[in-house]
Design goal:
It is a single chain. Strand 6 (70-78) and strand 7 (85-99) form a beta hairpin. It is built from one helix and eleven strands. A six-stranded mixed β-barrel has the order 2-3-10-4-9-8. A two-stranded parallel sheet has the order 1-11. The chain has one helix at residues 141-144; strands at residues 27-29, 32-37, 44-48, 55-58, 60-67, 70-78, 85-99, 104-116, 119-128, 137-139, 148-150. The relative contact order is 0.28. It is 3% helix and 50% strand. It is mostly beta strands.
Length: 159
């Protein structure tokens, strides 16, 4: 397939290509950025991953339970670097199947309140065991779309 840019055709004029326009310029962020999981006081270094549809967070002591006929989870979020810990109880919004090289993994998804840069966002996060990963949090397109452009050659542009 030939890119519309190669033919000097505007993407909005190409059938089947939807262009999302924003009223303000998108903020440029790097491949790793600080993110706050509210009400926690210390930011987590998060990997910014445009290939991931849904953001993900490393949790411990995950327990499923039912409240008023709905599926809920409780879990602990502990900052690996400074030990800050917070216990959360969240309603499960859905389950996702994560395809990995070794095996598929089913994960529960909840809404989390986060602060990234000056943005306060309520977004879906899959709950995972990320202890084998460098970063406890992964920020996917569900947080990035319409808010940020990513330049993987830079890091820690947000405060």
């Amino acid at each position: 397939m030939v890119s519309s840019c190669q033919n000097n055709v505007k993407p909005e004029l190409v059938p089947g290509v939807e262009v999302k326009k924003t009223s303000t310029p998108l903020e440029v962020i790097g491949g790793v950025e600080p993110i706050y999981f509210l009400p926690m006081q210390v930011p987590f270094a998060a990997r910014i991953d445009t290939g991931a549809e849904t953001s993900s967070i490393d949790v411990a002591n995950l327990h499923q339970f039912e409240r008023d006929g709905e599926k809920w989870v409780s879990f602990d979020l502990k900052h690996d670097e400074n030990g800050e810990k917070h216990h959360f109880e969240k309603k499960v919004t859905r389950k996702v199947n994560i395809t990995r090289i070794n095996k598929d993994e089913k994960r529960l998804v909840v809404n989390m309140d986060i602060k990234i840069g000056s943005n306060l966002i309520n977004a879906e996060f899959s709950l995972a065991n990320r202890e084998k990963f460098t970063y406890q949090a992964l920020i996917g397109r569900n947080v990035l779309n319409g808010r940020f452009m990513v330049d993987p050659s830079i890091e820690n542009t947000l405060h």
